């Protein structure tokens, strides 16, 4: 295993080379300054997907199409198969039968165009923040990692160690690490579940902004129906391995994302809760 620790000189050079003034929510510099290729959201499709562990079926003949660029939220009770679904989409696990595709490509192993974020940030403690974001290395990794840190409002934290960061900041580093390769699909497995309410709202706004700027396809798992209604284009309820509800959040385009309140949002909230 390669263990790499960026030296202070490395980090200082990377920080000097980019704009460290950009902070969370600040306007982003022109695309030309970013060394990463422009991302393309990718379609996700599942056809007749079954996943069993031993004799126990967890996903039962699932059909699901997520159009490129859509923000889909998946809600459901514990044990309903949500994480299993994510693992099949990114190729961490294989379906027992049926087919999963990202774009036109059948998922037969780990998919480089899909990135998965968990509830815990899973940072490498022996790497500084910049090293964590660029952990996959490759040509130009420092510049790419720094651009991703700037995306998440942590441009000036690259030289710090993960243990000095707050939980929300660690999740932002994990998000930057996922974004560094400009994925077509971002899979979020309850990444906000362990955060306090204010940090969670910050992360909602950050996720929405980055999704708008990057244009990737998002699948967000959450137990929080309000979070699903607030952020997503569409909500799917997964119950005992089957889709119990599949609903567009705002088909008429009347509910501003992030401020979805009022009777229509409340009715949708109730409908989702009834299906969970
Ligand atoms: N590797 C595995 N081996 C055996 N059973 C598994 C495995 N992974 C998941 N399961 C089982 O599959 C079912 C669905 O698990 P999954 O983690 O997908 O649910 P979930 O909806 O994400 O739950 P939660 O909301 O609690 O995270 C559970 O009963 C779980 O015990």
Give descriptors for this structure:
alpha/beta, four-stranded antiparallel beta sheet, disordered N terminus, binds adenosine-5'-triphosphate
Q: Could you please describe the fold and organization of this structure?
A:
The strands form 2 sheets. The protein has a 6-stranded mixed sheet, sandwiched between helices. Helix 4 crosses helix 5 and helix 7 packs across helix 8. Strand 7, helix 6 and strand 8 form a beta-alpha-beta unit. It has helices at residues 8-16, 82-90, 129-133, 141-151, 167-179, 197-214, 225-231, 263-275, and strands spanning 44-53, 56-66, 71-75, 97-102, 105-106, 114-117, 185-189, 217-221, 234-239, 242-248. The protein is of the alpha/beta class and 276 residues long. It is built from 8 helices and 10 strands. Helix content is 31%, strand content 22%. The chain binds adenosine-5'-triphosphate (ATP).
């Amino acid at each position: 295993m390669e263990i790499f620790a960026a030296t202070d000189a490395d980090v200082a050079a990377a920080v000097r080379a980019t704009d460290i003034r950009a902070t969370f929510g600040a306007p982003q510099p022109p695309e030309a300054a970013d060394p990463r290729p422009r991302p393309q959201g990718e379609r996700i499709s599942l056809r007749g997907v079954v996943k069993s562990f031993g004799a126990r079926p967890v996903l039962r003949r699932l059909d699901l199409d997520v159009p490129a660029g859509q923000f889909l939220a998946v809600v459901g009770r514990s044990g309903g198969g949500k994480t299993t679904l994510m693992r099949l989409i990114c190729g961490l696990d294989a379906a027992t039968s049926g087919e999963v595709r990202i774009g036109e490509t059948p998922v037969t192993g780990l998919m480089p165009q899909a990135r998965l974020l968990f509830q815990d940030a899973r940072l490498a403690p022996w790497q500084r923040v910049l090293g964590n974001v660029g952990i996959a290395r490759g040509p130009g990794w420092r510049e790419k990692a720094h651009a991703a840190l700037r995306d998440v409002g942590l441009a000036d934290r690259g030289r710090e160690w993960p243990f000095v960061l707050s939980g929300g900041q660690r999740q932002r580093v994990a998000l930057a690490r996922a974004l560094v390769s400009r994925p077509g699909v971002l899979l979020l497995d309850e990444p906000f579940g362990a955060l306090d309410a204010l940090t969670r709202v910050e992360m909602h706004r950050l996720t929405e902004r980055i999704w708008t700027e990057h244009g990737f396809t998002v699948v967000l798992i959450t137990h929080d129906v309000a979070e699903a209604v607030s952020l997503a284009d569409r909500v799917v309820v997964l119950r005992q391995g089957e889709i119990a509800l599949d609903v567009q959040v705002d088909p008429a385009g009347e509910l501003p994302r992030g401020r979805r309140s009022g009777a229509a949002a409340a009715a949708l909230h109730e409908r989702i809760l009834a299906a969970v």
